[in-house]
Task: inverse folding
């Protein structure tokens, strides 16, 4: 795209120079000005269509809660849950004024295996009837991990770790030495080999394992498809060694993090809060303030819940709150393919039920607070680019919401981090002034290729379920601010108070569908909110930018998939075919543009002479140039028009390649060749980080940790194409300008060095097509004098008609003299 866009600007700039207000020396600045105008103009239009969330000094809901708590003597003192020695102090040391940030201390998981119980639903076997393997913990009744079992979605998180996958074990240190297995998920290599929950691994390949960390350190040295032998102690007795064949690591759509750093399979020790934590927001006349994490006598977020019901498809957690005379139930049910019908979207979700039973003798107002998903993948954070609905620089994880009034929103993690630094929290107006309702369609976290979203169920489609929906930042914000796009975020839903009568039959019930899957259009389209399903679906999470880019990107993306699915079966070749087809359709315009550029080169000598003749008179010079254009039937603006027609198509194609999840892990050659094995990432020819200075080779450096070949080829073709399309310089200043453009290619080399290899293939194919078009054009009909370098002074050419008349006149005069 850039090669073609640069080509268009250079050609059109050359054609438009010296005609009225167009000047050759301003070619480069016109390019920058037009680019900036398009960028800012598109952003202004987007802000009008989808206005960003406003900032406010204080949130109206916070003021309301403060008034309700004027006489509330029940303040958090950081006390631990009575009778639970493993509970953790969650209240912050000092009162926090920023309601969009969770300042709770990381959860300290005790090493005692009985303190926490883990449950796994689903399977990692792609042939099973489910799409994922989900790990739950009874501490907070939270989701700890979600791993997809589609082999197309492998783990790309760690650049340096290519080790094999054994399984998520919920590991801890055994008191007698070794690794105590807390949970074994179906379909994992450990489960396939026969490892069971409660086993103690004491050695791996005859290497003694005294602690869990020792096991994972040794495991990092093993590769996928490699067999490892482990010694196991089961129920206090040593059994025969078990051989486990390691696999490739699956993608974890949700996983534990500590300050935005993914944690290993053991997931022990400290970590940021897990997903789907809830607590009570209001009980009677007592209301939780934004600064409070939880009531002092309520331990729903970090307390131990009872696993009261479990099968291979559903798990139920129950927690009693005696001081509040309440019982809370959280129930998760994993969708299965054979239950939901046919189609690719089947089973990429769970159902979560929340129930609150009032055991008091009186009816009370009860509301709950629910935090959404956390720990979504940050893969490609050093090279990827995610498009948002407002201008926010780099972004990896957005808080995605859609309201009846206001439409879809993508709140960047950097916006939340900046709001915390500036102490100006983001305000998401759920209940707008003068409106009765503003229904929430969905809320969750969105990444470049995956999303995890909550879709609430409504008993009444006009029912206002939530009083507030906020973006929440977890963990700490980097002090330097350079990597705030890596921060962990989630969404917080605060329900409307509900009058709950005593008795189990009058319990508060709320159901959510939790979508957790890839951003494939055919999948997202099938997930629709209950409130307005005919106009909204999760497909709107696939965002190409300004609507005009989406209008072109969507059909081009579908055409790319058609080439792959029905013609060639390789996305690298499919990109080339799509590029050729687009350039072929644009051939009449690009040919006219190239012919115009050649015509301009032919007219350069005459333009030079006019410029020298009217050096001090701009008005006469412009008039003479216009007469010259008219004489040769040439319109300089004709070369500008094709550029503006082609621009939406080329940018749309660029956006389609950037957003398409099918390019993720799609190899250029084959899966067995590591080079260019992911068209959604740089080609990564050579890992040169250990040999190159850090300011160049670090993930945050100018070039990145890999030497990439395709960007170098792309820039080389840009330079070649530039030389072919640039006309001969009219003077020394123009020659200097062309040299500056050549130096700009060095900047482009740095800029494109981390570009996804699929985009580089598009650039290369498009540039080669442009060069080929130039070569097949008919050769110039200009004479040798016109083709010569205009910097060399030339004698003025006499008018042939006048020269012939003068010569005939001279001959007749000589004849007359002879007769006399």
Result:
């Amino acid at each position: 795209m850039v090669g073609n866009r640069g080509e268009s600007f250079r050609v059109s700039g050359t054609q438009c120079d010296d005609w009225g207000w167009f000047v050759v020396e301003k070619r480069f600045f016109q390019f920058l000005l037009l680019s900036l105008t398009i960028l800012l103009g598109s952003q202004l239009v987007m802000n009008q269509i989808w206005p960003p969330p406003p900032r406010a000094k204080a949130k109206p809901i916070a003021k309301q809660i403060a008034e309700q708590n004027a006489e509330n003597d029940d303040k958090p003192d950081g006390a631990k849950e009575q009778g639970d020695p493993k509970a953790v102090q969650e209240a912050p040391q000092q009162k926090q004024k920023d309601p969009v940030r969770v300042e709770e201390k990381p959860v300290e998981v005790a090493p005692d295996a009985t303190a926490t119980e883990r449950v796994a639903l689903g399977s990692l076997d792609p042939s099973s009837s489910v799409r994922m393997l989900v790990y739950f913990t009874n501490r907070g009744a939270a989701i700890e991990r979600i791993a997809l079992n589609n082999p197309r979605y492998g783990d790309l998180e760690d650049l340096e770790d290519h080790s094999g996958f054994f399984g998520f074990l919920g590991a801890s240190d055994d008191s007698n030495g070794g690794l105590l297995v807390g949970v074994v998920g179906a379909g994992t290599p450990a489960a396939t080999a026969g490892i069971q929950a409660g086993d103690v691994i004491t050695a791996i390949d005859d290497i003694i394992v005294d602690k869990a960390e020792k096991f994972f350190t040794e495991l990092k040295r093993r590769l996928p498809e490699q067999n490892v032998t482990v010694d196991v102690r089961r129920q206090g007795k040593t059994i025969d060694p078990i051989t486990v064949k390691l696999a490739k690591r699956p993608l974890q759509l949700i996983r534990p993090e500590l300050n935005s750093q993914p944690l290993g399979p053991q997931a022990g020790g400290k970590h940021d809060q897990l997903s789907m934590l809830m607590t009570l927001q209001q009980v009677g006349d007592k209301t939780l303030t934004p600064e409070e994490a939880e009531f002092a006598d309520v331990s729903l977020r970090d307390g131990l819940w009872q696993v009261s019901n479990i099968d291979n498809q559903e798990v139920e957690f129950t927690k009693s709150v005696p001081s509040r005379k309440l019982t809370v139930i959280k129930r998760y049910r994993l969708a299965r393919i054979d239950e939901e019908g046919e189609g690719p979207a089947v089973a990429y979700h769970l159902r979560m039920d929340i129930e609150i039973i009032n055991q008091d003798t009186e009816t009370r107002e009860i509301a709950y607070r629910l935090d959404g998903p956390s720990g979504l993948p940050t893969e490609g954070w050093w090279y990827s680019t995610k498009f948002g609905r407002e201008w926010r620089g780099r972004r990896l994880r957005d808080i995605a919401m859609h309201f009846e009034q206001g439409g879809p929103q993508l709140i960047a993690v950097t916006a939340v981090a900046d709001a915390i630094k500036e102490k100006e929290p983001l305000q998401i107006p759920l209940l707008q002034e003068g409106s009765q309702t503003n229904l929430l369609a969905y809320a969750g976290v969105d990444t470049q290729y995956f999303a995890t979203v909550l879709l609430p169920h409504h008993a009444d489609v006009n029912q206002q379920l939530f009083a507030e929906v906020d973006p929440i930042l977890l963990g700490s914000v980097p002090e330097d601010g350079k990597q705030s796009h890596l921060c962990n975020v989630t969404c917080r839903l605060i329900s409307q108070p509900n009058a709950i009568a005593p008795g189990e039959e009058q319990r508060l019930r709320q159901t959510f569908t939790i979508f957790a899957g890839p951003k494939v259009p055919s999948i997202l389209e099938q997930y629709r909110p209950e409130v307005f399903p005919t106009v909204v679906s999760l497909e709107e999470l696939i965002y190409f930018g300004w609507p005009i880019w989406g209008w072109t990107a969507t059909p081009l993306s579908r055409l790319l998939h058609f080439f792959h699915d029905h013609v060639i079966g390789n996305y690298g070749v499919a990109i080339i075919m799509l590029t050729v087809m687009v350039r072929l359709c644009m051939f009449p315009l690009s040919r006219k543009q190239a012919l115009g550029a050649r015509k301009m080169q032919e007219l350069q000598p005459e333009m030079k002479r006019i410029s020298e003749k009217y050096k001090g008179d701009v008005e006469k010079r412009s008039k003479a140039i216009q007469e010259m254009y008219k004489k040769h039937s040439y319109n300089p603006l004709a070369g500008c028009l094709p550029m503006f027609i082609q621009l939406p198509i080329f940018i749309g194609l660029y956006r389609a390649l950037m957003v398409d999840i099918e390019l993720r892990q799609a190899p250029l050659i084959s899966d067995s060749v590591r080079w260019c094995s992911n068209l959604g990432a740089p080609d990564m020819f050579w890992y040169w980080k250990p040999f190159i200075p850090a300011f160049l080779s670090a993930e945050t450096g100018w070039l990145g940790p890999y030497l990439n070949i395709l960007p170098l080829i792309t820039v080389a073709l840009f330079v070649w194409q530039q030389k072919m399309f640039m006309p001969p310089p009219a003077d020394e200043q123009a020659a200097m300008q062309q040299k500056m453009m050549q130096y700009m290619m060095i900047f482009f080399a740095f800029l494109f060095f981390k570009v996804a290899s699929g985009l580089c293939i598009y650039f290369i194919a498009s540039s080669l097509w442009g060069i080929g078009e130039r070569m097949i054009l008919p050769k110039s009909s200009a004479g040798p004098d016109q083709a010569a370098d205009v910097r060399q002074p030339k004698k003025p050419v006499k008018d042939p008609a006048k020269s012939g008349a003068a010569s005939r006149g001279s001959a007749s005069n000589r004849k007359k003299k002879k007769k006399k």
User: Anything to note?
Assistant: The first strand starts at residue 101 and ends at 102. Confidence is low (pLDDT under 50) at residues 1-29, 49-114, 782-808. The chain has 19 helices and 31 strands.
